[in-house]
TrEMBL record:
This is Lysine-specific permease. PANTHER family: INTEGRAL MEMBRANE EFFLUX PROTEIN-RELATED, MAJOR FACILITATOR SUPERFAMILY ASSOCIATED DOMAIN-CONTAINING PROTEIN. One of its GO terms (cellular component) is plasma membrane. One of its GO terms (molecular function) is transmembrane transporter activity. Residues 1-194 form the Major facilitator superfamily (MFS) profile domain. It comes from the Bacteria. It is found in: Cell membrane. InterPro entries: MFS (IPR011701), MFS_dom (IPR020846), MFS_trans_sf (IPR036259). SUPFAM superfamilies: MFS general substrate transporter. It is a multi-pass membrane protein. The keyword Transport applies. Its main location: membrane. The chain crosses the membrane at residues 35-54, 61-81, 87-104, 125-150, 156-178.
Length: 194
């Protein structure tokens, strides 16, 4: 439950920071609509390349590593974006966060499929989905209000740092040796035996 909660918190922060993304690109980076569209395309390329690579490594890497390290690098991508002052640096940040999002999501979805009993999986996902949506809404509103009072870049940087702290905590909890036997996929266990 702790891992589920921490990953959900990373997703909440991701959604909240994403809500300021277009305003950040236009006000802080002074990007045109076409430049912003290209930036989003860079993120799309990152997701595609990450997903393709993910299909090759998913059976060779423990899901706790995929989820933990993937979340940390998603946060790092947001930090690079938050501190960027040029299109190129923003594009690098977008690519990093999108690339590692494939790994983080694969690790998390495999984790809960391996650890949550099938009988209660639907109810748990529905319950946590409602709670997560509420916190996404609340966090997005709070960050929007603070961005109006201070500056968008400060709020995006703060949000990315909070996301990184949660992701590091998630990574530490997910990589605990006692948890590994529950989080690894059967494929990884079989490969280690062979």
């Amino acid at each position: 439950m702790i891992i589920y909660l921490l990953f959900s918190s990373v997703i909440v922060m991701t959604a909240a920071v994403d809500s300021l993304e277009a305003a950040f690109a236009k006000e802080v980076l002074n990007l045109s609509d076409s430049d912003y569209g290209f930036l989003v395309s860079v993120a799309g390329a990152g997701i595609i390349i990450g997903a393709i690579l993910n299909t090759f490594v998913v059976k060779k890497i423990a899901i706790s590593i995929l989820m933990g390290i993937g979340s940390v690098f998603v946060s790092i991508g947001y930090l690079v974006y938050a501190f960027s002052e040029t299109f190129l640096l923003a594009a690098v940040g977008f690519f990093i966060l999108a690339f590692f999002l494939a790994f983080a999501n694969t690790g998390f979805h495999t984790f809960y499929q391996n650890t949550i009993p099938i009988e209660v999986m639907g109810r748990m996902i529905s319950l946590y989905g409602v709670v997560q949506s509420f916190f996404v809404l609340l966090t997005t509103i709070m960050m929007g209000i603070v961005a109006q009072m201070i500056s968008i870049q400060t709020v995006v940087i703060a949000g990315a740092f909070v996301m990184l702290l949660i992701a590091v905590l998630l990574s530490c909890v997910a990589l605990l040796p006692l948890k590994r036997k529950y989080e690894q996929s059967p494929h990884v266990d079989e490969m280690k035996v062979n």
